[in-house]
Design a protein that fits this description.
mainly alpha
Length: 185
Amino acid sequence: MAEQPVRLRADAQRNRDRLLAAAGEVIGEDGAEASLEEIARRAGVGSATLHRHFPSRAALLGEVLHTRVQALCDRSADLLTAPDAGDALVLWIRDVVTHAATARGLGPALTGYHSAPEFEPHTMIRQAVRPLLERAHREGVVDPTVTVEDLLHLANGIALATESLPDPARRADALIALVARGLLR
């Protein structure tokens, strides 16, 4: 029999949600080695509350990464009904670049810690973009030789190339626009 997830009291769930939101912000600013005390402070809770919800740094980082990857997957599903397949694909690439830029250090920090088989971030992301790319192929707006891996390498390259620049978001958008002009027919 499958184990049922534990339901938290409403106040405990609010604390957990605030911790995840604060962790997302602080990790986006400071990387995977962000201060747990700063995360608790921004969430408006004590360190004991943080550790009650997330007994280790790896548990917190894993949940932040899972939340971000799930948001990318949900966004992909939403974009499947967008009027223009090419625009939808480019919007999703922008989301992936933003994710990559704000998730710096999460992957390496979790190597060896997060082994839940139901959470394979790379697999989830590949599965999320595949329908968008297939639609773009069917509608003839993207060359049929473009692969999921091509798109993910582009997104990762843009994130890496812009992360240390003075205005990384603006530069990433400019590079995405440049790539889109070359990608879309």
